[in-house]
Amino acid sequence: MDANMFMQHFINALGLGSLYGLIAIGYTMVYGILRLINFAHGDIFMLGAYFVFFATVQYKLPWALGAFIAVSGTIVCGLLVDRVAYRPLRGAPRISALISAIGVSFFIENLAVVVFSGMPRPVVQPPLLMEAFSLGGIRLVPLAIMVPAISFIIVAALLWMIYRTKSGLAMRSISFDIETTRLMGVSVDRIIAMAFAIGSGLAAIAGIMWALRYPRVEPFMGIMPGFKAFIAAVFGGIGSVPGAMLGGLSLGFVEIMSVAFFPRLSGYRDAFAFLLLVVILLVKPTGLMGEKLEDKI
Amino acid sequence: MIAPVNAGHARRNNILTLCAGAAIALLLWQAPGYIDAYKIRIINLIAINAILGLSLNLIYGMGGMFSLGHAGFMAIGAYVSAILIITPDQKQIMWILDPIAPWVRDMRAPFLASLLAAGIVSAIFGCLVSIPVLRLGGDYLGIATLGFSEIIRILITNLTPITNGPLGLKGIPPHASLLMSYGCLAVMLLCMTRLMRSNFGNVIRAVRDDEVAAKTMGIDTLKTRVLVFTLGCFGGGVGGALMGNLITTIDPKMFMITQTYSLLMIVVVGGLGSITGSVVGAVLVTTMLEWLRFVENPITIGSLNIPGIPGMRMVIFSVLLIAVIIFRREGIMGMREFSWGWLLRDGKRGGTQ
Amino acid sequence: MRKFLLSLLICIVVSSSAFAADDVIKVGFFNCLTGQNAFGGQLELEGVQLALKEFPEVLGKKIELVVVDNKSDKVEAANAVTRLINRDKVSVIIGTYGSSLAIAGGEVAEVAKVPVIGTSCTNPLVTQGKRYYFRVCFIDPLQGAGAATYAYKNLGLKKAALLVDVANDYAVGLANFFKQSYTKQGGEIVSDMRYQSGDQDFTAQLTEIISKKPDIVFLPAYFAEGAIVLKQARELGATFRFMGGDAMDNPEMVTLGGDAIEGFLYTGFAYAPDMKDMNPVAKKFTENWNKAFPGKAPNGNAALGYDAFLLAVDAINRAGSADPEKIRDALEKTKDLPTVTGVTTLDSDHNPQKDIGVLEIRNAKKEFVGTVIPE
């Protein structure tokens, strides 16, 4: 493999990995606080992509406005899911919330089939983002650089929020001990809702960029990315925001590079991703950057 | 798991169970003459789902090990059984992508032996997988088993000379008759009740409820869990084999994570840790999914034509599922078991272990 | 709880009383109306509905169409066929898009001895060794060979690469038949890449293929996937041509693929609304379709749905009865029946010999390039 080709693979992996990372943050934030694997997260991501499709393609709104509408709409959906399906189950055994999450996931997917129809729809990419140029022998479109750049800026902003603001402090405190935090006068439900809002917002942003990069929306598009992002969150250490990003990038690189170095085994690409998951769990169950979590009873 | 109130009751209960069993057997034996094949198929599916639900319940409800890998073990069972009972000639024709591996082609076994083999191979895989991953607790275990299940599926998809890849296997002889499925279910119920009433049943519960305490009592907790997991995988393999025999074709896509989800629903709706609960869960979830088909059919009322709405069935099903979880989170049966005493109202109502 | 169980029992007993009226002939239809293959199934349903409008009666009785969704799922497909046969007591069944679904449904029909007419299930295994399964489309070995012949002989392209969904029976089968025929003719396969259903990122596989410099890439994907593969390929600077199979034939493909799909070739059923020398049946079909579904272009799937219904009506007429066994015997003798996708004659394996159409996307429109005879 020559250097150019490697760089091409590198750019591909960076783009894919940073999208996984963005989705993974939603999993990680909810899990860090509630110990709940939010199986509906991939479907929230799908909603984000659909909203931006409707805003920009169907109603021909400008991209910036469309993105804003999509993010707000998705946040509302994320909050609704929490309010209706998860909040009544706080304090219930975790399996109940998990089954509820699976139910919500089915619900969103099939409602999307009913409302949006099962037909995949095309997303129109802004031509400005798609004008190819050459950089030292590799071919690039601006979008390929934009996606990781935006992702990193968002992660930086989120880290600032978690470590430098009061709400962030409350969030970290809840993940440490929910009851004590409540006693300290923190409105726990509000902070949890906030975590859902941030997670859904990021899923929407990932959905928008996904729809730009792989320009098509369909009701089941969230399943695989959701799955992969979940692996990424576990790999990076579930509960850790930088870990989620790192996990996403690692997964992107494993997937792309497994094909790059072992083209004959390209059919096993997803198996490599899952193998990575199993190996990290066996070697370091808390993931790359996770801390030991006490199981809450 | 109820200690009978007295010996007289115990004898009465055993007789009642035998009578009920005989009555059900008679009904099932006669059923094909009276109800159509479509309903027979659903009733059959209930038994197979109950077997699968029970095996998952053994791992998760009784053993306390959160496994999301059941679909993978089902797949192994289904493929082992199918490969063993399809004739070599049929296999030779079916592998149209890559030539079939000769040892796979020449393998043959009668149906019951294939069922046993399905269970055993699944159990061996389960055992191998469980030894490393059972050191993990809680959700991590679920995630790791999920990973294994997906790896199994991808391997089946890619290993064409052995599994015929994505084409799957067709023309599996339909051995899963009503009596066969319910016979397997009866055996499974008997074994599980026996198991959970035995001392080892207590050990399993002890390990689930408090691992540290169990350890201090001198129980080898890892060994117990590996054994329970392996037994559960055996059940999963047998259930998968029966499923293949009922549908008569299998392919890797049948064994995706959604398959595990539906089993998990059966277990949770019925009641985690309840043997009869899983049976009730299988009845409810299976019939509900079938019955809800009507919402997707076009309905004609007089001259009014309401077109069917695709996707509506799963929307309603998921709403019902969420409602059950929110309003009756312990499931229909909770941790209780069905018992004659409860039905006939002697002693206190129901009982916990 | 006891009350509940009791009422459940009563429900089961009471609900088992559906019977067929004598003055109608029931034709069952099972297809993917939801799920991943919903687009093809829906078009086939519309094709059937159009045919029903034209032929509402047979043997002086009204035809009643019973539609069941198989949700693009094998278990559901088997259930759907069981339901059509036992509850609705249909005389003949039409369906489905997706060979694996047809195979699952076919097993049930085989046992119940009710004939099924396949629409666009092109895998050879669907009718192989089956007494009751028939179809109106060509089979994949023929299609793969047709594609290979067109690429190698007609276009003179000597180096091909494959990009195949490894979890998709249709794709793997078709790719295999293409490969066999292409290498036999003297072509070289320079790269054989795989992906899994549900994947949306193909950049790694495409980068690898680009580095091997093929003349053409054979992509036997479903259209929704194929369209974004093409987009990503163009984004990565790929200049070679792409070729696909009948599953790419969908009016939505052009909207999904945009510019990237320009010049895309695919083999398909020999019908397109713009084809030049249309047979009379196809002409009539196109006219009626435009009246019934204005603004929606028909395609090969719609045509095959229509054709399958024609086959059913023809067989019922010749059988002179609604008895499934007699219809089966009549279907087996289907000969020289004019249908939209050409004249249909079923061979001993219940497959018709049909032309393989080659279509190309030109100026954001699919154009019927012509037919090809596979080598």
CATH fold-level label of the largest domain in chain C = Rossmann fold
The CATH class name of the largest domain in chain C reads Alpha Beta
Quote the average pLDDT of chain C: 88
Number of domains of chain C: 2
* Helicity range of chain A: over 70%
Rg of chain C (C-alpha, Å): 21 Å
Order of helices and strands of chain A: HHHHEHEEHHHHEHHH
Strands of chain C, total number: 15
Largest sheet of chain A: 2 strands, antiparallel
Number of helices of chain C: 12
Most extensive contact: B-C, 40 and 43 residues
What does this structure look like?
- Chain A has a domain at 12-123 and 130-221.
- Chain A is built from twelve helices and four strands.
- Chain A has a two-stranded antiparallel sheet. In chain A, strands 2-3 form a two-stranded antiparallel sheet.
- In chain A, α2 packs antiparallel against α3 (63-86), α2 crosses α10 (223-236) and α6 crosses α7.
- The N and C termini of chain A lie far apart (52 Å).
- With 297 residues, chain A is mostly helical.
- Chain B has 353 residues and is mainly α.
- Chain B has a domain at 19-256.
- Helices cover 69% and strands 2% of the residues of chain B.
- Chain B is built from 16 helices and two strands.
- In chain B, α1 packs antiparallel against α9, α2 (37-62) packs parallel to α9 and α3 (70-85) packs parallel to α7.
- Chain B is globular.
- Chain C folds into two domains: 21-139 and 280-355, Response regulator (Rossmann fold, 3-Layer(aba) Sandwich); 141-273 and 357-372, Rossmann fold (3-Layer(aba) Sandwich), CATH 3.40.50.2300.
- A seven-stranded mixed beta sheet of chain C has the order 8-7-9-10-11-14-15, with helices on both faces.
- In chain C, β4, α4 and β5 form a beta-alpha-beta unit.
- Chain C starts with a helix and ends with a strand.
- Chains in contact: A-B, A-C, B-C.
- Chains B and C meet through α2, α7 and α14 of B and α1, β3, α3, α4 and α6 of C.
Summarize the structure.
The complex is a heterotrimer of chains A (297), B (353) and C (375). By secondary structure, chain A is mainly α. Chain A has helices at 3-34, 41-58, 63-86, 94-116, 127-130, 142-164, 166-176, 178-183, 188-213, 223-236, 241-261, 269-283, and strands spanning 121-122, 133-135, 138-140, 216-217.
